[in-house]
Amino acid sequence: MSADLPEWYREGYDNIWLPYTQMKTAPDALPVVGTDGVYLELADGRRLLDGIASWWTACHGYNHPGMKEKMKAQIDRMSHVMLGGLVHEGALDLSRRLAGLLPGDLNHVFFSESGSVSVEIALKMAVQFWLNQGIEGRARFVGFKAGYHGDTSAAMSVGDSDDGMHKAFGGYLQQQYIRTLPQSDEDLAELKQFLRENKDSIAGVIMEPLIQGAGGMKFHEAEILGGIAEACRKADVLFILDEIFTGFGRTGTMFACEQAEVVPDIICLGKALTAGTVAMAATVATDRVYEAFLSDDPEKAFMHGPTYMANPLACAAANASLDIFEEEDVLDRVKKIEGHLTQSFAQFRDKPGVVDVRVKGAVAVIQLERIEDTAKLREEFVREGVWIRPLGDVIYVTPALSIESAEISALTEAIDNVLNRSSWNDSNQ
């Protein structure tokens, strides 16, 4: 480890365990000392243009003045209070605003601290929804290959645990129905038949709408999403949408499900909910689901309670983020970002080793035949002054929705330089 690194880095690095990282062989993580707009500031003075917005959380960029002001005001009043038997203005305001933004009658908001936990909550809600009506045995879920819903146990079980990053846990997880995501009318017909035949064991279907994120940035059309929703309705199984990645403008509308005019029974939100400032997530249910828990019997209540649910500071951040969406016409910016990315990324289609190039909203993906060493490729991007973290066989960007045209051009130029560089190409021949 270099002596030029900050003292705090040299003294603490041996004690931290980083995510998705083989700590024995992985290159040392970069020390970040600050953020500014769409840039990460490193300890050695370098600035990296962040092409993935800290796993697509920082939707308004870093250090937005409006968010900082409102979060500082909140921490002066109240940083936290439990939600068991107590409630506060920020939580009620945020619940009301989310219900107003979401389609249909998604009116009942249950808060938590992470997207993975919001999925766990959705699955528990779905199982108890049936039990509260005296219907037993409906405790399994249909998920889809290349799906990713988080790293906790039930969330892993409804993702692609056979071929994905969680394959080591196959024997540990509850067995679910993991199917290939439909791509045609014939596929949808097969799914409808499967749901009809197995509905007595199925609590619900869960999927990521329009884009399967961490499973490979795979896209599907709004018609497919609508067809799956219709299949669930006809079979009378709950439809759960995981919009932790796709929500809050990422695909061009506030929520991806709007593009198929679909209202799920339960929706999971997170990531950009607080615009990359404080951990928070939400699971939102329709009137039908919520009313199944209303009873004179206390045992029919939903028995779940994250310690920091509806944390006042997180609520202040989320409300501040929604203010920005209202005041700055963010969705119009996403349309412009999509247009620029579509035009700029078209040049990569003819590059050697490129299988596909696809753009949706503020998501742009270059799929390659293979990437032999994602860590090496990440280092090449750092040399170009950008932070891009390749995933599997794809290079993707999910920039802040505040990114400027010149900065998109800089990202594109950096990718072009790296793909043209022989030191990277040689390892993929």
From TrEMBL:
The keyword Iron belongs to this UniProt entry's keyword annotation: no
Keywords from the named record: Aminotransferase, Biotin biosynthesis, Cytoplasm, Pyridoxal phosphate, S-adenosyl-L-methionine, Transferase
Top-rank EC class of the record's enzyme: transferase
Localization per Swiss-Prot or TrEMBL: Cytoplasm
One annotated Gene Ontology cellular component of this protein: cytoplasm
Residues involved in pyridoxal 5'-phosphate binding: G115, S116, D242, P306, T307
PROSITE patterns found in the cross-reference section: AA_TRANSFER_CLASS_3
Membrane-spanning intervals of the chain: none
InterPro entries assigned: Aminotrans_3 (IPR005814), Aminotrans_3_PPA_site (IPR049704), BioA (IPR005815), PyrdxlP-dep_Trfase (IPR015424), PyrdxlP-dep_Trfase_major (IPR015421), PyrdxlP-dep_Trfase_small (IPR015422)
Names of required cofactors: pyridoxal 5'-phosphate
Positions bound to substrate: W55, Y148, K271, G305, R389
Enzyme Commission numbers on file: 2.6.1.62
Gene3D superfamilies the UniProt entry points to: Aspartate Aminotransferase, domain 1 (3.90.1150.10), Type I PLP-dependent aspartate aminotransferase-like (Major domain) (3.40.640.10)
Site residues (Participates in the substrate recognition with KAPA and in a stacking interaction with the adenine ring of SAM), renumbered to this chain: Y20
GO molecular function: adenosylmethionine-8-amino-7-oxononanoate transaminase activity; pyridoxal phosphate binding
Coiled-coil regions listed in the entry: none
Pathway: Cofactor biosynthesis; biotin biosynthesis; 7,8-diaminononanoate from 8-amino-7-oxononanoate (SAM route): step 1/1
Reaction equations catalysed: (8S)-8-amino-7-oxononanoate + S-adenosyl-L-methionine = S-adenosyl-4-methylsulfanyl-2-oxobutanoate + (7R,8S)-7,8-diammoniononanoate
GO BP: any one term: biotin biosynthetic process
Subunit organization: Homodimer.
Family: Belongs to the class-III pyridoxal-phosphate-dependent aminotransferase family. BioA subfamily.
Record protein name field: Adenosylmethionine-8-amino-7-oxononanoate aminotransferase
Organism: Emcibacter nanhaiensis
Gene encoding the protein: bioA
